[in-house]
Amino acid sequence: RYTEVKVLDTYSGSEWFHTGSDGAMVLRAPVEGVTTGGARYARSELRELTDGANAAWTLDKGGYLTVAMQVDELPTKLDGTPAKIVIGQIHGGDHQLVRLYYEKGSIYWVNGRNEAQAVDAVYQFRDSAGNTPKVDLNESFTYSMEVKGHSLTLSLLADGKTYTSSITIGPGWDDNLFYFKAGLYLGTNEATSTGDGQVSIFGLDVTHDGSRPVLDSGGTTPTIPTVPTIPTPVTPPVLTPPVIAPTIISDLGVVATLAGTSGADIFSVSQKATVVNAGAGIDTVNSSVSWVMSSGVEKLVLTGTAATCGTGTAANDTILGSEAANIVKGNSGDDRLEGKGGADTIKGGSGADHIDGGTANDLLFGDSGADKLLGGVGNDRLTGGSDADVLTGGEGADVFIFTSVSQSRAGTADLITDFASGTDKIDLSAIDANTQLLGNQTFIWGGAGAGHLSVRDGHLIADVNGDGRMDVDIDLGSIFGLTSADVLL
């Protein structure tokens, strides 16, 4: 499970958060690290808090963040190129007003999509001559973000030059409450990369009184121009060295039998009946149609815009959905299943599976095995199945479904990591609350005895047969204040 630390001045000794030999705050994260609710990738970062809770400032109040730092290390993607990371954010509601990226020596930022803006907008920093910055690994720089009403300005000081980028904040953000984030949020995981990311922070300051403080270390905070220049959104540059793509073995639009090599092969499949004899190596199939993985294929990626189905093998498979509404089935084995975009249905099957719905309203089923289910963004429905599962709804109004007492009982209780009272629901309506009576009885909130539901020591418990033992046991983690309105009885 992930760790959230709110008292930093007494926290030390972590591999992922420690003080470096130069006095810097070092933040590190591995691609295979655990993720927080709603996140696909591991992170080690700082979040702005007020009285122990997320800060919640408005556009009218505004705010200023400045950070002096450097990027020390990046994960390596499977094609051999360095992965990108997020080094700063302005987070608002379910969206990010700003995501600041470091990618191949380039620093740029994204104004995230929201209900009123369908796509992300990408912006570059430029100096007075129109040049963009180039920042190497282990090279220190200072960035700042300032919000004043609907004015948003970012500045970057690198190589003794000041680079700026400013926009007018568009519709859809007025009702959001914001907080700053700084540090390291990976843009990849173990399905696509290897290694760790690491950044060092030399100084950081946040204000909401209109001041622009100068950091104690890491250089002078960049001066923000009085009349900012509004740039045109651009695509981040692809910098040298060039990437040499691997050879793709394709069925060329007709049913075929494709043979792999002893290395890591990529196959392109457009016909359901196409057969892939993968051979040795870690092999991937990109399929635009519904396809059942064959032995020797380790990874299946569903492509295109059609709603397709991907089915795994008895081995440990990785299946990634497309932006469409996919059906993903892991079968047996310890599988990694990701829906990505679209309203997906994902079934883990037997084995200890990692299931990530991605965006949209997804249906997730763990089945047997100790599974990890992550709803992601959207109003998701999560059913863990037997064994001790970890359920994380993520963003949105999620429902955690229990259809049998065998799904979560003493000794194999499921853990709900991020239940939001008043937004999420726990659905017990399919369970007979009192098996001593005919029919399907509804649970009674509070009290003791058969059919009564109560919270004890952070667990939601119930006895369904009157023997005085817990037949239903759901670990609520750090959830407090659960009420009868949160449970579908």
TrEMBL record:
GO terms under cellular component: extracellular space
GO molecular function: alkaline phosphatase activity; calcium ion binding
Places the protein is found: Secreted
Keyword Acyltransferase included in the entry's annotation: no
Keywords: Hydrolase, Repeat, Secreted
PROSITE patterns: HEMOLYSIN_CALCIUM
Enzyme Commission number: 3.1.3.1
Major location (coarse): secreted
Keyword presence, Secreted: yes
Listed cofactors: Ca(2+)
Residues in Alginate lyase domain copies: 10-208
Record-linked Pfam families: Alginate_lyase2, HemolysinCabind, Peptidase_M10_C
Record domain Peptidase M10 serralysin C-terminal: where: 374-438
Alphabetical list of InterPro entries matching this protein: Alginate_lyase_2, ConA-like_dom_sf, Hemolysin-typ_Ca-bd_CS, Hemolysn_Ca-bd, Peptidase_M10B_C, RTX_toxin/Mannuronan_C5-epim, Serralysin-like_metalloprot_C
UniProt name for this protein: Alkaline phosphatase
Taxonomic placement: Bacteria, Pseudomonadati, Pseudomonadota, Alphaproteobacteria, Rhodobacterales
